[in-house]
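Today's session is about reading a structure prediction critically. Students often jump straight to the picture, but the first step is always the sequence itself: look for stretches that repeat, for charged clusters, for runs of hydrophobic residues. Only then move on to the predicted structure, which in these notes is written as discrete structure tokens rather than atom positions. Here is the chain we will use throughout the hour.
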Amino acid sequence: MRIPEFQFLGTLRGLQPAPASPLSSGALASRQGASFVVGFPNQSPCEEEKNVGSAKADLSTPGVAQGHEAGLCQPGSVRILHVINGQYYAGAERVQDLLAQYLPQFGFEVAFAVLKPGLFVQHLRCQRAAVWLVAMRNRLDLRPAWRLARLIRQQDYRLLHAHTPRSLLVGTLAAWLAKVPLIYHVHSPAWADSTRWLFNWANATLEQLLLGRCDRVICVSQALAEQMYRRGLSWEKLVVAPNGVPTPTSCWKPKICFNIPNHSANKQSILPPGNLADPILSSAPKTPALSLQASSSRGSLPSESIATKSPFVSEGPATGGSDLGLWRLGTVALFRPRKGIEVLLEALALLRQQGIPVYLRAVGPFESPQYQAAVHQKAVQLGLDGHVEWTGPVQNVEAELLNMDLFILPSLFGEGLPMVLLEAMAVGMPIIATQIAGIEEVIRPGQEGLLVPPGNPVALAQAIWELIRHPDQAARLGQQARQRHLENYSAQAMAARVAQVYRETLSNQRPSH
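Below is the predicted structure for this chain, in token form.
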């Protein structure tokens, strides 16, 4: 059976495809009845309907939706093709989705070519973006480059925008064949993307070899741009376009635990002097992994053991039982080793061992079932049965943030500019994060949140206790974080900066390939 060169997966608008065209070399893929998950606030200029549940597109007829006939491109807009992996829907994919939603304000229409189809197609929010499947059979399969080049020419895409080393490999050749400019978007350091160091080395080496073929390189933070410069890229090619997120539909408000006047009045909640009472925010020594016995049951949730919960079932917010002073800690991530969830579990165990009424709601999927099992087992060993909720993928991250008292981002390394950190800032909630490149560029200690050394559960527990003891300070930090988002990290600002890069690149009549 002949595999099609590329397949049009449609848009979320439910448009009828145009009559068959020479572009279609095989049966049109159907996305009929696909479920699209709402992951973030639903305000965007290209979403004409706010109810996103089961979006149905009748795309069963062979053919391709073309240009203005399909409503994919506004008159006078420049068409841009983003080539992406598509396996996950996490921070980088959220950026891609938001750019597709907001770039039309600046005269650019975005389509996606997916190399490794997965969660991106299911979670995509932008209703006007065309999605093409141009699958790679393996990491070094270059055949999609020729298919992409034909797609670029036939659909009149004026510029190619790649987002990962894999997409850069295919995109470099496709852009050269189609004679269009190439933009590369660096979302995180390839050399520190995971704990698999050989994998990191291979990706970083590939990226290094291909960067010279790019017309411009967009970095999501100044720290990341400086790292790329140190790797040999000229400042003339580098552009900093910080990530941004939409203005949320609601703002965070302090819960009842903020109004209890004196948490230290109950001796069961007092930390021993000299232990965790004074937070260390920048230089605490790292401690080895802890092995604690089962902690106090005060403030425990009426739930099953975390070892038996399904991590892929989204649960409603816990009520906190009868303890009105229970503090709801929360974190959101695609959980993988560099996200530091183990450190947060150790900090939670330390706090509960001291009788502090806290529990954790961990929002998001795991990178792999093996890692999920290891983290769950660690939580059991730390005596956190009934004190951690694992939601798996959720439909509304904003709603999850609004239900938390403190947002914790315990990343160890490898961040560019975390989107969920900006989401937490946007709703105006108290934040504790780690002092690593990218994060410390956004959160100034004591102004928009607290920063602690990565990999240090004691320092993290101290910072959490600091905000529990001083709820007024926690609320103030959240308000200042919201203001900083409004001034610097909106989705419109991100799209405007990327649009400027497009215009500058396209004004060069002779691409550098």
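Discussion point for the tutorial: The radius of gyration is 24 Å.
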